[in-house]
Design brief:
This protein is α/β, with parallel strands linked by helices. The chain has helices spanning 42-49, 70-73, 92-102, 108-115, 131-143, 161-175, 189-192, 213-219, 230-234, 257-261, 271-282, and strands spanning 2-13, 16-27, 31-35, 56-61, 77-80, 149-153, 181-185, 198-203, 206-212, 220-225, 240-244, 247-253, 264-267.
C-alpha cells in the first residue's frame, strides 16, 4: 500500500521552479533517501508532503491531501528538521511533560527508556546539552510517538560521526519496525547507504534517478580497470570514469557482469559515487 503518491507535482516560486512534474510512489514500510545538491528541491518536496506549502498536481500522504487535511495528517506524521528548534530554556523533564500533554500518541515510558541509554539528565536545560544530546532528545520524543510516517530533513547535520552513528542505529533498532515509513534527506550519503530501502536523486526540481536498493545493487557496478583493458572498457560506455591512485575506475549501468569481470577488479559502487556520476551527466 502506498504511503505517498504524487503525480505531476509542481511548485514554483515566481519564475523559479522548485518542483517540476514530479511523479513519486513510496510504499508503506520503506526507508527512502532523497539525495540532491543544495537548491535541488528536497525541502520543497518534504514541505509539500507535510502540508507546509501549496502545490499543483496530485499528492496523497496516507490517503489524505496534505494541504487540505494537514491537521488530520499530523496525527500520523512526525518531523525532524534542525534540532535547534527545541526551546533552549526548557528542562528535559518539562519537555517530556509538555509533549505528553499535547500529543495523544506520546508514550512517555518509551521516551524515558530511550533517554536511559544516554547521559542526558532530566534536570538539564536544552541550552546545556551538546548538539548530539539535543539530537538524541529530539529522537527520543519522536520515537515515543506511534506514527506511520517519519520525515527527517538533514537530521544529523553538524553532529560528529559518533552521534550520527548512534542516531541511525537508534532509528533502525528502536523505531523502525517494517510497518512505519521513513523519509530522510542527508548530505552524509555514505552513512545511510546500509539504512535505506529506496533511493531518489533530485536535481533542479526533477527526479533524475529512482530505484530500490535491490535495483541499485543489481544495476550498477564499478570496475578498477587493468591498464591494458582500459580501451575495451571504454567501449562499454561507462556512466563515469575517474582516477584513483593512478588506476582508472569506471562506473557502469546494466552491463553483463561476466563480460566486465575480465576487465579488472569489480566492486559495488557507493551511493555517493553514483550521485556524482548522475549529477555530472545532468550538467548542461
Amino acid at each position: 500500500m502506498a504511503c505517498i503518491e504524487a503525480r505531476h507535482l509542481r511548485k514554483a516560486f515566481g519564475p523559479t521552479v522548485a518542483l517540476g512534474d514530479v511523479d513519486l510512489t513510496v510504499n508503506e514500510g520503506r526507508i527512502l533517501g532523497i539525495i540532491g545538491p543544495n537548491g535541488a528541491g528536497k525541502t520543497t518536496l518534504l514541505n509539500a508532503v507535510l502540508g507546509l506549502t501549496s502545490y499543483e498536481g496530485e499528492l496523497k500522504v496516507l490517503g489524505r491531501d496534505p494541504w487540505k487535511s494537514r491537521d488530520e495528517l499530523m496525527r500520523d506524521v512526525s518531523f525532524i528538521a534542525d534540532v535547534a528548534v527545541l526551546p533552549r530554556w526548557i528542562r528535559v523533564t518539562q519537555l517530556l511533560d509538555y509533549v505528553a500533554g499535547v500529543h495523544p500518541k506520546f508514550d512517555r515510558a518509551k521516551a524515558e527508556n530511550f533517554l536511559a541509554k544516554t547521559t542526558i539528565k532530566r534536570t538539564s536545560k536544552v541550552r546545556h546539552l551538546s548538539k548530539g544530546m539535543v539530537a538524541q532528545l529530539h529522537l527520543a520524543l519522536v520515537m515515543a510517538i506511534d506514527e506511520k510516517l517519519l520525515v527527517l530533513d538533514e537530521p544529523t547535520l553538524g553532529l560528529d560521526i559518533l552521534f550520527r552513528k548512534q542516531f541511525y542505529d537508534s532509528l533502525l533498532n528502536d523505531y523502525f519496525d517494517g510497518g512505519r515509513t521513513i523519509i530522510v534527506t542527508t548530505h552524509q550519503v555514505e552513512e545511510v547507504q546500509e539504512v535505506l530501502t529506496d533511493l531518489i536523486f533530485i536535481n533542479h526540481g526533477r527526479i533524475v534517478l529512482q530505484c530500490s536498493m535491490e535495483e541499485f545493487e543489481s544495476r550498477y557496478v564499478e570496475v578498477m580497470v587493468n591498464p591494458d583493458q582500459l580501451a575495451a572498457a571504454r567501449t562499454l560506455k561507462p556512466l563515469q570514469e575517474r582516477n584513483v591512485f593512478g588506476r582508472s575506475v569506471l562506473l557502469f549501468e546494466d552491463v553483463d557482469l561476466a563480460q566486465i569481470s575480465a576487465l579488472g577488479e569489480v566492486r559495488r559502487p557507493s551511493i555517493a559515487d553514483l550521485f556524482v556520476a548522475v549529477m555530472t551527466k545532468e550538467k548542461p
